[in-house]
Amino acid sequence: MQPSSRRIRGPGRAAVLASMTALTLAVATSAGTGRLSHGTPHTAGPAAQPTRGATVGPCMISGTLGVQMSEGMPTPPGYTRSTGTVRALNLMIDFPDAPGEGTAAERLAEFFPQTEKWFSTSSYGRLDYRPEAPIADWLRMPRTFKEYGIERGAPFDPGYRQLVEDIVTAADPEVDFGAYDLVNVLTTPNAGPSALDTVLSVTFAGNHEAPVADGVPVSNASFVYSRQDDGSGSYEETGYRVLPHENGHVFGLPDLYTHEGGGAVGHWDIMSEDWGANNDFLGWHKWKLGWLDDNQVSCVTGSGTVEYTLTPLAREGGPKLVFVPLDGRTGIAVEVRTGEGNDEAVCKAGVLVYRIDAEVDTGRGPVTVYDSGDDSGGCTRRPNVHAELSDAPFTAGETFKDQESGVQVTVDRVDLSGKYTVRVTRS
């Protein structure tokens, strides 16, 4: 697949916000353990896929076979499960021409415990993400970084295949790969170009052609390279966020940025922008991952006007998502976003409305956020936060209307506890 790049204009400079589109190939996973197996494929996503009733069934849109990392539900086989205990193997590697910068423990500390806390907060504790690093030192590769031919957009073969084979050979005496659900390869940050010039970080998810170690294919692996440090002084607090983004692919989520940048979704999902201030997943993604129950989702299938109550997405419990299916592959989602939890960059709380298309490939714009104030310039000037969409949410008294479908969403009121009442009209 073609790599995508994201660019946000900040005060006086441009920062490249890119991580290449994850390759998506089918592989079998065990629904019982989430670990990779050679057996019959099971459904990825939540550890146990409940039987969906008629109330939400029409809202489980899906794409046709061949769509790369579709937003459709349920998540197809091959990805790591996204609920319960997930063990993440972390290997810090360096090269003869790029010896480890600092200690391997320091490199690991750039991502943990922040990443596990991020997932715990976002999932309301439903994902027990457990990072492990059985090898405490740098794992030296037998070839130079240059010899692997790793560059932006590089396919799995031949360079990454060779790298994975060398990692397995070096680590296998001390690592049981079969005990883990995913692999994070944290390279020394001095290997390859600066992330300000070219972001190499990439995930190969559901890769059934991956080398085998301890009887399982290393098929869900994220590779992180140079530091995503834009010079704003926020790296120590925000630099880890590339890893939740990359691991999002391991769980089956697509890139939401496009070749034109992050203007389709802005900072409303970490799969769109993973630089700068913290942000969360969209409610659709939380439902797809099994972090929202079906009874927290209202599926609007009938015509007329119906009133719904929504609680902020960051808070555990309560109704979270209203979804209006337009056909079998597209729909309009409605949720409440506030400056809580992982959503520290929210400068305008309110009702976020967006369109999902399960027929669109990763990195091609499968999600589009609707802006309540077109060409307003937004309400934030924080670096690496897409300004124009920062004030996208609708507030009390405002109405969104999709001219094509006739769907209308009116924000009626918000009470002192932060609950929003919306009226959804479907003609």
Automatic annotation (TrEMBL):
Residues spanning the signal sequence: 1-28
Keywords for this protein: Hydrolase, Metalloprotease, Protease, Signal
The keyword Hydrolase is assigned to this record: yes
InterPro entries in the record: Peptidase_M6-like_domain
Keyword Signal (UniProt): yes
MF (Gene Ontology): metallopeptidase activity
One of the protein's GO biological processes: proteolysis
Segments for region (Disordered): 33-54
Stored NCBIfam families: M6dom_TIGR03296
Protein name in UniProt: M6 family metalloprotease domain protein
